[in-house]
């Protein structure tokens, strides 16, 4: 059994990660800005916290073996929030002695089979480009790091299947706008990268099992 801290535990990916970690028997600390909004998580060890505050990250992560980052703040500038969160996690987790970080990314900046970022391919929706670019900037902070926790960035290869159920498996694939994976199966991939890490300091796409 491991002790895992999940930042952004109130979101759909975060809640799925908490559920999968507990299913495996891990001890979970669920961190979100306002736990009172998520009564269904009350049975978990739920704490308030700001993922952009390195001191808070260090305090919340102390004594844990791994961290999952699934946080987003849609009320702030994504170009500020995501890089700040990445920097705070790298700093705070290092101080807390947490050696593994599994972060949730976006397919938009995952290369497709030709090597082109999905968000730069013809026909890719651009109405949320500031959010995509902000998320990408956060990923760039991870890629630029030379020390700190061993991290991996996982994203759907295309998008989440919002109505999809848990099948118990998944696959890895490059960016593909048509690919889908359920939140529950994506959470399996997240936890597998903690229980038996396969990827290190890279961005990997996750899709439904073939």
Please report which band the strand proportion falls in: under 5%, 5-15%, 15-25%, 25-35%, 35-45% or over 45%.
15-25%
First-to-last CA distance? 30 Å
Largest sheet: 8 strands, mixed
Helix fraction? 25-40%
The class by helix and strand makeup works out as alpha/beta
Which outline best applies? globular
Count of helical stretches? 5
Structure description:
The chain has 210 residues and is α/β, with parallel strands linked by helices. 32% of the residues lie in helices and 21% in strands. It is built from five helices and ten strands; from the N terminus they run βαββαβαβαββββαβ. An eight-stranded mixed sheet has the order 3-2-1-4-5-6-10-8, covered by helices on one side. A two-stranded parallel sheet has the order 7-9. Helix 1 packs across helix 5, helix 2 (54-61) packs across helix 3 and helix 3 (78-96) packs parallel to helix 4. It starts with a strand and ends with a strand.
What structural keywords apply?
single chain, 210 residues, alpha/beta, two-stranded parallel sheet, 32% helix, 21% strand
Record the SSE blueprint.
Blueprint lengths: L2 E5 L4 H12 L3 E6 L12 E4 L5 H8 L4 E4 L8 H19 L3 E5 L24 H16 L5 E7 L2 E3 L9 E2 L7 E3 H13 L7 E5 L3
Helix pairs in contact: 1-5, 2-3, 3-4
